[in-house]
Amino acid sequence: MNAKQVAGYRAAEFVKDGMTIGLGTGSTAYYAIEKIGEMVSGGLQVRAIATSNASEELAKKYNIPLISASEVDHLDLAIDGADEINPQMELIKGGGGALLREKLVAMHSDKFIVIADSSKVVASLGQFKLPIEIVPFTYEWTLKLLRNRYAVPFEMRKNGDDLYVTDNGNYIVDAAFGMIESPATLAEELKAITGVVEHGLFVGITDTVIIGFEDGRTEINEK
Question: Is the per-residue pLDDT at 1 higher than 90?
Answer without folding.
Answer: no
